[in-house]
Amino acid sequence: MPSTPGDRHQLRLVEDVVEVCLDSAEENMVSAMSLRASALLDAQWNGWARPLATASAMNDFLNRWRSNDPNGTWGDAIEEEGQLVYSSSDSDDPDIFPRAGTTRSGEPLYDLTGWMWVPIESAKPGFSPTSGSSLA
Question: Which residues are bridge partners to 84 per DSSP?
Answer without folding.
Answer: 79, 97
